Amino acid sequence: MESNQLLSVAEEFGCPLYVYDAEKIQSQYNRLTNAFSKVEKLRINYAVKALSNLSVLKLLKKMGSGLDTVSIQEVQLGLRAGFSPDRIIYTPNGVSMDEIEEVAALGVQINIDNLSILEQFGAKHPQIPVCIRINPHVMAGGNSNISVGHIDSKFGISIHQLPHILRIVENTKMHINGIHMHTGSDILDIEVFLYAAEILFDTAKHFKELDFIDFGSGFKVPYKKGDIETNVEEMGKKLTKRFLAFEKEYGRELTLAFEPGKFLVSESGYFLAKVNVVKQTTSTVFAGIDSGFNHLIRPMLYGSEHYIENISHPKGKERFYSVVGYICETDTFATNRRITEIKEGDILSFRNAGAYCFTMASNYNSRFKPAEVLWMDGKAHLIRQRETMEDILRNQIEIEI
């Protein structure tokens, strides 16, 4: 989106504001499907946790996507958006058996990631097809909080526990129809990912009635100029060749599945915030905006770097600013960042604000969550209203004191 388009949206709906470009989501989806165009049965399951707005889910459904969910609430959102149960996979971690059974009753594909639940579910529901999440002990790049394939991860069943899995399957006579892995976000080295894929192929040989193999996701997107990203085209060529060879070895056609979240929506998103104050101290120039980590926590939580542009004056002289929020504790988006000269009242645009941004927003300091807008076909569509004081008070119960 262009600066003038973003400014017009900010003027119409106010700040702070999340804006998503539908065309970018479409192009990322096409890029991934084209990279695996030689795979007959390809399934893209969008990771709902990245951005769960119903209108975005409907957009992805129209493109042909399925859904990857991690909670029954995400499953319910997917059903509300029009996805059929057989287009949804549910991969929880540490949830109750009651929740898993409730999701299974809806006809959604279950993906189990621990031995205890696998045995319990198999004993009670051997007729319900189950996918097993394997931890290959292969770690993707990125922050440690989003690398989930290492040996100390709480996610998945260790590949070294495969004999235990096989014993449970044999004893319960349960039906295993899928094998899954997820190494974590920000895959930097394709060869490392392909190494993990080989572990999954070797595991798949032990199960004779598979319908699909799910390779998770974690494809890295660029966050700044010159930043590296996962080369999905190269990965597509290499993994496709290996997958087709495995199909012949396995003796039946399989579905190749992925669960991209960030890859599909991150670059579509812009977070717009208004500058409340420019504050010069003895060593720093602060640009204080009308938001904080209550709306965009990733820089504070993950140390992520979002490119920040002054769209009110995009061609001004560059100066160094530390961009901070209005939350009553350390609340920093960027330190000593080169940005065109900022004046109070200017609108700043944060790039890569489509994934794990609004979905991680909170009401800390009793602030309202911002509105969301979908830019589609050259028009701005409001897809979530800005919260009001009624939303803050909605579930509170006042008692006599």
Can you put this structure into words, describing what you see?
The protein is an alpha/beta fold and 401 residues long. The chain folds into 2 domains: 22-265, Alpha-Beta Barrel (TIM Barrel), CATH 3.20.20.10; 266-386, Lyase, Ornithine Decarboxylase, Chain A, domain 1 (Beta Barrel). 30% of the residues lie in helices and 24% in strands. The chain is built from 12 helices and 18 strands. It has helices at 3-13, 22-35, 54-63, 72-80, 97-105, 115-124, 162-172, 190-204, 232-250, 262-265, 298-302, 389-393, and strands at 17-21, 42-47, 66-69, 88-90, 109-112, 130-135, 157-158, 176-181, 212-214, 255-258, 269-280, 285-289, 308-310, 318-324, 332-340, 347-350, 371-376, 379-384. Strands 1, 11, 12, 13, 14, 15, 16, 17 and 18 form a 9-stranded mixed β-sheet that branches. Helix 3 links the parallel strand 2 and strand 3 (66-69). Helix 6 (115-124) packs parallel to helix 7 (162-172) and helix 8 runs parallel beside helix 9 (232-250). The longest helix has 19 residues, at 232-250. The radius of gyration is 23 Å and the shape is globular. The model is unreliable at 142-150 (pLDDT under 50).
